[in-house]
Amino acid sequence: MSNTIPPALKSWFVVHCVTDLIFALPLFFMPEQFLAFLGWPHFDPMTARLVAAALFGIGLESYFGRNAGREKYLGMLRLKRIWSGFAFLGIVFTMLQMESPAVIGWLLAGVFGGFHLLWTYWHTRLLKVID
Q1: Which of 5, 42, 44, 94 is most buried, with most CB under 10 Å away?
Q2: How far apart are CA 58 and CA 124, in angstroms?
Q3: Could you give the maximum distance between any two Cα atoms of the chain, in Å?
Q4: Burial level of 119, CB count in 10 A (0-12/13-18/19+)?
Q5: What is the pLDDT of residues 69-91, one digit of tens each?
């Protein structure tokens, strides 16, 4: 099995880290103000900070693990697929249950759905790599 990771995938891991941190920092330290700014009508500080913790963990591991080998990438991609897939579904279910869904919810669903497709593509591609 090849241990070479495509440079584009490494770049996507850095982009993912930056994206996660952009949301995690304000969500952790000032969730009420950040969610109000985004137009989200509901606020629970513990849930917001738990989501931020997940974003910190997955985002920072994307950065710290960007120079790892194939096996570690496969594990990280599996985790990213699970997280982004269930985040997408959870957001969509919530939006469908809301009387007046906030636009930001659909945008976030799009972000998580897009990342899920991206990670599925790369996971599938790495699984096919054979020397």
Answers
A1: 5
A2: 20
A3: 53
A4: buried
A5: 999 999 999 999 999 999 999 99
